[in-house]
Design brief:
about 60% helix, mainly alpha, elongated, 9 helices
Length: about 210
């Protein structure tokens, strides 16, 4: 990581989670770039001296629950040991995965996952979470997001119970202009891959015609 990126995540770690971090000297131009990136990522409120209140998760409401997600909720509402906090956490993870698949990893969303874990994690049934993530086909992508918390925000593996192995690709996912590349295809839900290749095949067929 370059100095701007290192400082960026150290500042966010301090602003979002209250953990003081060493900041390296930078030029005024790089500080301007850092503030621009914070605005783009909707995390300006975590910068030093900011008086901006946190604006919430812009765009995560675009996530529309599919049939499988709705079935999970329906079954859980009728379960003897219903866990509303677990359902809320599942929706937060699924919303973030939706944003990543759409082409952008949401840093504010990753931070919200971290906040949830540290404030309500003890109320979440992580056995259910893992089962649900597998049912939705987003387990692998959720592992990447969890790895970002460990690699860039200083979380310990114990704080992220559904994470079983950190991935070095997590840093790349969070720092490489937030764009997904072919390297991340194995992490896509199968249904999304099928849809992508179908659209690609259709486009090629139309060109040939």
């Amino acid at each position: 990581m370059n100095v701007l990126t290192r400082n960026y995540f150290r500042i966010l770690r301090e602003g979002a989670f209250g953990e003081r971090q060493p900041i390296e000297p930078m030029s005024s131009f790089k500080w301007h770039q850092l503030r621009e990136r914070a605005h783009e990522d909707n995390v300006e409120s975590y910068l030093p001296g900011s008086e901006e209140p946190h604006k919430g998760l812009r765009g995560l409401s675009e996530y529309k629950k599919g049939r499988r997600h709705k079935n999970i909720e329906k079954a859980e509402y009728h379960a003897i040991d219903t866990s509303i906090h677990s359902l809320d956490f599942l929706e937060l993870i699924a919303s973030n995965v939706h944003q990543t698949i759409a082409g952008r990893t949401r840093i504010d969303g990753i931070i919200e996952i971290g906040h949830f874990l540290r404030t309500k994690g003890d109320k979440v049934d992580f056995i259910k979470i893992e089962q649900w993530l597998h049912k939705l086909g987003i387990y692998n992508m959720a592992q990447l997001h969890a790895s970002i918390l460990v690699e860039l925000f200083g979380f310990t593996p114990d704080e992220v119970p559904f994470l079983h192995r950190t991935s070095h690709k997590a840093v790349r996912l969070a720092t490489d202009t937030h764009k997904l590349t072919l390297a991340f295809l194995p992490y896509y839900p199968a249904a999304t891959l099928h849809s992508m290749f179908y659209r690609l095949h259709k486009s090629i067929t139309q060109i040939e015609e």
